[in-house]
């Protein structure tokens, strides 16, 4: 079976690095050169199979009893597997899976990828319904990798109310994970990202034989430290134009005081922000296209410079999620599955409550063929039109994004206060989510109309009225 190719950008925030004490894991899920429609669903325990078929190979994997309910953003087209991508389960554990990364040929010669193993299309479905903490997520996936192996190299993140963990596969069966410090953030692109690693720390986990594997095969190029990126990762010309610049731009945004260059292979993995990070900050960097630099594809420099580096916000964005586990809220309303469909420059995030039984239809029932009555297709259409005359449309798109965010935040605040001030009686969260979805859809439709009206007068097929 042909596999879908994904190329994503991951961003992680420890609870003390965020402005409100929330742990956040976020990712742009990117696809190929044609639209790949996405859904936003809730998977109930009775919908989870007892035996899961791996997408690429058909390998059957037995699943544990008593799965948890969880949100998910799968493909509308199921022919290539589930591709659950991201979600929050009823234990308020969040997971984003996965970031496609690199492993070098030296490693793959010793621990080859496993063609019949599990892959990105499978991982969320195999792990998220069965874990009650972020650390449990790492350990469960590690066990699956040891048993079945993986057919690709990936990075995966987990979070709960206390912890954020980031995990990378290091070959067919080996893996390593690190707990992100509470006061730190991470930008992870399509390369192996973890650098300095301490096997003796309580904040690391790894496959059982990893230290011996490194030592027995003489894999460490460094004399005094363990740097997983040096040992297992790549340092290629592709990294200098495709991966490193994205990390550079994000670190430049959160740490403008540090001088770095976009092609640097040694950009740090763990970073401390100069100021605390908000949801709006995360959306900005995940939508970014090197604004205010010579590398902006919408800029005015020569074409070669503008197209030198792969942007973060790109036409291939399928969906963007920020999975927020809030520290200051009761259990029933802790988890917020922020979601936007389509290319990020022209979309808006909606803060959906995760503790629901159903999601709004315009996000849930996405058809596989074009239909602008559904949010994925409406957002994609708006982006295609907006890209054609970016300077004309950018302010309209920015204004719409801000209006949607402000209106949804107001609804969210009212809902939180209703819960907190009325003996903790749970509001109808499905109705709240529907209200926000309707609002976001109406604003997106209005934006498309305004862009059409403005673009009409800028068409090439024009001539002054002189009759």
From TrEMBL:
It holds the Pfam family Peptidase_C69. GO terms for molecular function: cysteine-type exopeptidase activity; dipeptidase activity. It is an enzyme of class 3 (hydrolase). Its EC number is 3.4.-.-. GO terms for biological process: proteolysis. InterPro entries: C69_dipept_A-like (IPR047804), Peptidase_C69 (IPR005322). Keywords: Dipeptidase, Hydrolase, Protease. It comes from the Bacteria. It catalyses: an L-aminoacyl-L-amino acid + H2O = 2 an L-alpha-amino acid. The keyword Hydrolase applies. NCBIfam families: C69_fam_dipept. Belongs to the peptidase C69 family. This is Dipeptidase. It comes from Vagococcus penaei.
